[in-house]
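ok here's the first one, seq then struct tokens
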Amino acid sequence: MRAFVWHEGDSFLHRLNPLTKLLMCFLAAAVVSTANEPITPALIVVLSFVVTRGVGQVPWIVLGRPMLFGIPAAFGVFWTYTLFYGGSGPAWLFGATMATRLLAIMSASLLFVLTTDPSQFVRSLIHQAHVSPRIAYSVFAAYRFVPLLEIEFSSIRAAHQMRGGVGNRSFLDPIRELFGYAIPLLATAVRKGERVALAMESRGFGALPQRTYFRVTTLGNNDLVFAVACVGAFVALVAGRFYFY
């Protein structure tokens, strides 16, 4: 889970409004979804990594860590579509297209996730997208539970190991262990959620129609420059696709 947590920094991408980056992710997904060849998605993968590394100042090791999940998933998509493809044209080409689509969407999403502070994203949803604070802060609280549940899972697993409850004596043991982890983890999540709800209610969250904010997100010139550059790149990719293919 740590592979998908934002990388703190003060780069050009970090200072952008989160909604600007999110919109560009949706545009990238739209361009990729309409591609019927693997070159366009592959170019978006390269472009996303170059921008995230160069403009976002995210280290290569941080960028490569999520690929430990993405590359095996893309390989699975490739051989599955290649093996069971029943349409016209080469099966391997269709499989490669679907695999690179997955990698392209994932790399564009990494640009957003690794350079966006979750609290800033919540504020941008409230200030620019006019989302209700109740919904926005609920999403933020759920996101903050992810690393906490990961720590709790490690503690539960360590407790099982201390009691000799972890082992591979038969093929049913992993299933039993899964239920042994799921029940206390679910109970922990419910207790944490209840405590957060009580804390928010005790502080009068949502009691008034208007509320004040210590930090306010805005849309600036940098957002416009980034949006124009991304739209220009996507238009060039689509135009090149129709010209060459």
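and now the second one, same deal
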Amino acid sequence: MTPTRLDGAVAIVTGGTGGLGRAVTLAFLEAGANVTVTYRDPAERDALVARLPGPARQRFQATVADVTREASVRDLVAGVTTRAGRLDVLVNVVGGFASGDLLVTDEEAWDRMLTVNLKTAYLCCRAALPAMIASGGGRIVNVASRSVVPPAGGFIAYTVSKSGVIALTQALARETRRHRVTVNAVLPSTMDTEANRRAMPDADRSSWVTTESVAHAILFLASPAAADVTGTLVAV
């Protein structure tokens, strides 16, 4: 297997049919991985499946899972390990954004950001780690944000939740080093997605990054080439 190939690797990509998740899924399948994605929107799932070449469809699985709930995440990992016998890679893509400073951020918005950005990563890491340890090692890649380094104002709940993802990544990397499990994070700047174009129709997109660029960084961190890279934050 060449350093950035994932031939035969078993991967979970949460939110694998959305803007960034779709790019990650396609990159992983092209690299030879077996990929299970979580999704909520059947139309997104169908659009992704339509883009897959025939052979890649044999290595693709989509499942509905609520990654904000421990039981659902546990069932997700159990389903993958039952089918494949192991788990090699976890990519935590699921997340969300909310603007607003502290005075306009109500409790509901605060809890939503912490849940969708930080709790999902915590639950998925916690469920995946035993399977990776049993397999002799693995790769975890989390998605944080370049805009929260250093912590920024104006979208405080998002900033705190994504900063938490960074702390989780670096602390977990220390805990898992002895198990040959690497834990890293990518920090995308504004990505050129359909959702961002709708949300910011008048923005200057010249500095936006493509989801493919972020996906390639994630692919590297998940690959054998990054076997000695852990606790690292990759800004894209």
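notes on #2: Residues 11 and 50 are 20 Å apart (CA to CA). The chain is about 45% helix and 15% strand.
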